[in-house]
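[job 4471] stage=fold_predict status=RUNNING
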Amino acid sequence: MAPQVMSLLSVISALFLVTHGQELPTEMELITAQFIQPLGGWLKNDPENREIQEAAKAAVENFNSQSKSRKYFRLINILSAETQVTNKIEHKIKAVIGKTNCLKSENTTVGDSCVMGKKRLTCTFEVHFNPRNNKHDTLTFSCQGTH
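[job 4471] inference complete, writing structure tokens
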């Protein structure tokens, strides 16, 4: 009985709208579900993104300053990256770094002149970028040897 009552009410509503000079809606608006990133949530980011590249290089510099290795490491490849915006821009970066032949004691800069050795590490870095002072801070990192 309920479906019949609903149908009758629909017909009566339509007649009321037509007799009072209002047109019936011809198209219904289609509602679709879509994903909206919550504010402050982690988003996947393109490893080739300039901001990710800069954050990863800063993280490797920090790694070199804290590592007990006698030789510098250099960024080889960024495997994945995520970004979260809070009062700072936070990045989680998974990257492969490689040991070079440049000694830290020689105070050289790690550049293309540093020949890559065989040792590789896969590292996860958490880097914060503060846009107020244009500075990267590496909060944490963990690395494992790759085979």
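[job 4471] summary: The first helix runs from residue 2 to 19.
[job 4471] exit 0
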